[in-house]
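[job 0412] stage=complex_fold ligand=iron/sulfur cluster status=START
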Amino acid sequence: MVFLWSELPGSADSEAKMIKKLDIPLKSDLVPEILNNTDKIQFRCHKGISCFNACCKQADVTLTPYDIIRLERHLGLSSEEFLKRHTVPFKMDAQGVPGVRLKTDESGACLFVREVGCSVYEARPSACRFYPAGLMAMRPKDEPTDKSRYFLIREDHCKGHQEARRVSIRDYRKEQGLEIYEDMNREWLQINLKKRSSGPTIGKPSELSLQLFFMCSFDVDRFRRFVLSDSFRGTYDLEDGFYGQIETDDPALMKFGFRLMKQVLFGEKTIPEQEGALEKRREERRQHREMRRRSEIERHEKEQEDLLRDST
Ligand code: SF4
Ligand code: SF4
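[job 0412] stage=complex_fold status=DONE, emitting structure tokens
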């Protein structure tokens, strides 16, 4: 599981209280333990364990952009089809920033779980790879860089904690193939953190910026069509090689989406714009408003005429 917090609390006790306040979707009342990369946990999960699949039968899996890319390609689905068939949307925070979770059946079981285990194991999401640990991205007060901390949850149904093996968080991440997931999602987590930290400074995000966030984060095929469109090419000054690459390279497109989000949401300009593109967009918007104003006037005049005719 991946969680975000904008301000790093002081002590382990206050960290634990902070975690309790977060919307951690677990059915346990136990307070999680906060861990560093070198801390060791006692844990092993394997097919012969008595609780095999128990966690997947109470699944509450929040997806990251790279999780979705891996899953949809593994299943041979477009992002639109994957989102429709396998996810449910939710709001990640009070500002309405959209997120997606894996769909479950009525009993709460993941749709991918089978008697023999996870049917998408090679492409399982980062939350599943981390479990029973999780990642928290935090921004310490007065520090410019984010800090990763890990937490461990002990749930009654999970017997892996009773196994004899001790493993460091660092080795566990390696074993679970998490490094590429963390690398790919780091910038996205930073965007989320920055949005939370800036909060009222930036104000409530517009509907359009929330739509852009959703498309760039989760709907890679629609985002590809958007980037390859004439209007996008007319707005941004990018080389032909870039367009050629993102036609097939999903991770490259995803990372470009992070840049675009930072440019649109925070004004961090890293994508050059075509000369005069801003003025052109302003003019198009002005013409659009003018057309709407005229059609409103025409509709109003017609209503007046109809009224006059009916009354004579
Ligand atoms: S994706 Fe796989 S590992 Fe994750 S909850 Fe579903 S069945 Fe379990
Ligand atoms: S040991 Fe824990 S993680 Fe492994 S199958 Fe059992 S409940 Fe799931």
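Residues 45, 49, 51-55, 131, 157-160 surround iron/sulfur cluster (ligand 2) (CB under 6 Å).
[job 0412] exit 0
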